Amino acid sequence: MANPGGGLLLAPMEGLMDATLRDLLTRVGGVERCVSEFIRITDTLLPERVFHRMIPELRQGGVTPAGVPVRAQLLGSDPACLADNAARLSSLGPEGIDLNFGCPARTVNRHRGGAALLEEPELIGRIVEAVRRALPPGLPLSAKMRLGLKDDRLAVDCAQAIEGAGAVELVVHARTQAHGYRPPAYWERIGDIRAKVRLPVVANGEIWTVADARRCRELSGCDRLMLGRGMVADPGLALAVLRDRSAAGVLEAAFTELPPSGLSWTQVLGLLEDFWHRTTHSHEPRHRAGRLKQWLQLLRLRHPEAAQAYQQLRTVHDSRAIALGLFCREPTALE
Q: Which residues are bridge partners to 69 per DSSP?
């Protein structure tokens, strides 16, 4: 269905949320905007082909096939180098640029990237300022951060540095790097940050259900949410959240004609089959099965059929056996 908006963003998830998955999830509906997987910036001005490889939507107006805009995310710690790359990237037509101050991966943090920068609010400010100066005036610049590295004592300082340097939106993942992805998410701390800045704040982290979305809005005070693993586990989650808000009278009347909450396993299986077909065209044979199982691992949190399929295919790597076992059909020549 056409995207109805409603303030729901699709999170950048490195190694998971590639262009194929962005296409499939935005095709289901309910997502207002996506953010790409991060593009790591070190000391090199990347060629255009790197940006196109990471964000193929740039070749089609910066939107997914369903028409949902994709904001390009950069990660790094050198203000000048990030600014140069952001300037080049901006010429390729992204919806906007996003800066990553939240990646919890230790390999990234050891190289002074992602959440490691949350110990240095002053550097965060210089990065945002340098990138803002390098971009065309009308191109949005946003940022995504966690509450901190080991603790959240500098969370407000980091948010204020991001705002003061010219960002127009901030997404806050409601955990520190030390928390990783362990529940709970501390949504009330987003509210504390929101009270100290004027720019729009989007809440993110541990939103798996409609009830989670409702509770997150209540505790954070944020009207807009970013959905991550919960959307991958339940591709109909954004629509379900929109339906819940419509029933509560939050959305305009035009949004009330939404489909029932959630997707059936038959509908999800159709998405999986499309995903598998496209994966066989875009990935080396040795990586194909892993990509499918990665999605099944999350889907099984919401669909018993996915758990059963994962167990059946857990040790299977042959493309023909996977196609026959999951989709009951002979594979194409490429598979």
A: 63
